[in-house]
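Reviewers asked in the last cycle whether our approach scales beyond single polypeptides. To address this, we selected a multi-component target totalling 793 residues and predicted its structure end to end. The input consisted of the following lines:
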Amino acid sequence: MRRTDLFGLGFMAPALILTIMFFLAPVVMTGVYSFTNMSTATGISGGAYLISPATIRSLTEQGFQGDAIERLSSESYVVDEAGLEAAEAAGYTPRFIAEIRSTLLGDTFTGRRDFERALKDLSHRPRSIRDLKKATELFQKSVLNVRFETEADFQSALSSLNLNLSPAEAVFLTETAYTGWIWTSANYDRAVNLPSTYRATANSAIYVTFTLAFNVGFGLFLAITTFYLPSGQAAFFRTIWFLPRILPPVLYVLMWKWLTWDTGFLSTLLSHFGVPPHNLMKHTATHAWVVVVLINGFVGASMGMILFSSAIRSIPQSMLHASEVDGANRWQQVRYIILPQLRWPILFTTAYQTLSLLTSFEYILLSTNGGPGSATNVWALYAFKIALNNYGGNLEYGYGAALAMVLVIIGIIASLFYLRLFNFKSMITSPRIEQ
Amino acid sequence: MRIELKNFKKTFGDITVIEDMSLSLESGEMLALLGPSGCGKSTTLFAICGIHRMTGGQLLFGDRDVTLVPSQQRNVGVVFQNYALYPHMNAYENIAFPLMIRKEDRKTIEKKVSEIAALVHIGELMERKPAQLSGGQQQRVALARALVREPDILLLDEPLANLDAKLRLEMRSEIRRIQQQTGITAILVTHDQVEAMSMCDRIAIMNKGDIVQLSSPQDMYQNPNSEFVASFLGNPPIAFLDGVVTDGGVQLASSEALLPLRGQHGLPSSGMPIRLGIRPEHFQPENPLKVTGRISFVETQGREELYDVTLSNGSVLRSIQRQGGGYHLGDEVSWGIAENQILAFDASGARLHMGALA
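The resulting structure, written as structure tokens, was:
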């Protein structure tokens, strides 16, 4: 490699590192997580094996029956050599142990009480009841609510229950009992099968379409109207319409809330005309959509306004003069001269805004928070709530990652489509406006 | 159509560009507004086409007062310096644009566009976008667009400035041909005296917002009414000798040399300062009124050769001669001035009319 190449690489290195750290790595990690069932319940490190009442329920639902379920869910005590050895090690008298061996070896008790009673009947039993109760524990063979750190421990505990399971059932039981995360593609199946997914898809489509239309339309309107204003006034109006973008989002949305609350500005104003106060932000789905589109639209329009304004100003003055002497009035000038030459900025803004709107949800989160109901719950917000801000408390990282992954894929497809549409190469090599 | 501009005044904020200017064009005439940059010639053009509002005065197209008529309704055709073609339309659409705006029907538009395209010789380029046209072709499209609506007046704003030398020569005669064929009244704004002289019936020389002389090219060259006009016209330019009028003729400044202009009347009284303008073609070896100097610069122009001759007082005279004179840089020469071709000016730059004593 030549020195200059190394030099160039050196200059690019910070950008490369940042791209890898803050873009590629998150995307790859999201992809990886989306194939797990990680959640608050499974944790992200590892897990243990545990049969809980909930496990029993799900086993029953899966068709486990009779004996096996009975044994898994009951407490059982088996008098065997292993238990006797444990008792010896725990310091019980040899006579007591010998007596248990001779009278009870091989017996199974299905309840603690029964086994205790049997031990009480022995003549060499310990004096203290507490010691007696402790002795019962040494013979306990139940797995219910016992945490096994390794699969081997769990399997040996199961084998002592004599469940007589088929291999498939045994595997299923082990999987169900595992509390840690596992690799799975179930997230995607789940996304396809849940109606709420389709709701979020439709919401995202509505959100992107309407906000985009408003952004671009209003941005164009502002750019064109300010173009025809004297420069001082134009700068004044541009500054005003730029405010939503430079305002901190939380403050900006708070002001919208203040405007639309049932005790806010609009309701108070309308109440003088006999209109009953509503929360205009969340009264109905339509109200919520209008507010969401406006909140995002005004922010987005400011960018369109700036881009379009500079594009209009780059049209040579003489071209506008020419159209005037050719007889075109203002409207015809806009329609035939200005708009056709804004084709590229409009396409660019549309492309850029589509991608950023698809993934943005901060203004919705701050304003309607997806409500009323889930009327404005767009895909990105849906994924965020599932993965990171779940009301129920069980954050489903894996499922959320799968939902986010879908957005990444849609984003990449849209980018490729737009690049194709723009013929990006030709855009950067030749100027669009002849001087 | 006859065009008349009366007492035109134009100010931009506090700056007065044109104080009081009047100008009239005969129907079918082509007039050049010639002057250095900043003299107000483009301002005048923009006022006539209505892009700039007139601060004062009156503008008549024929008998119609268009002073307050917006440019959209004035019916003027303008060719801009950079042609101002619409880049997103092809040549046909560009030319058809004024008619399309006027909502003429498609048949009429097609007919008019093809007629005008044939006139400016771009019939085969109609599908091309401006970016695919050469400078000269763009110029022709711009001309066609300006002419297609049969305007009352054609305004050309430095139309040749963006062309290379060869094309400039070609378009010069082309524009004149098209103007004469259509018989349209036209105004050409230019800072190039060659363009003005070769293309126009009359020239209005402007300086600092005022027309200093309005005349035919030939008359203006031979009879400039001021030093400014004399120095503006002619290539290579006129040379000046400063001096003082004495009894015997003109005593050149800081020099012993005396030009014995005895045969002239109209000289101011003795002791007055005077400037003598001598065009290069009137300073030749064979002329009788000899001046001595040293050749300080030689420029070969092919058919002719241009010499700068520095006199002993530092003044420079120019002479243009046929090839083959055999003079070299540094030669001391004694060439003559054509006495009756001398243009004399007073200290303020105004022309002093002299004539031979008959």
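The first strand of chain A starts at residue 49 and ends at 50. We regard this as preliminary and will revisit it once experimental data from Aim 1 are available.
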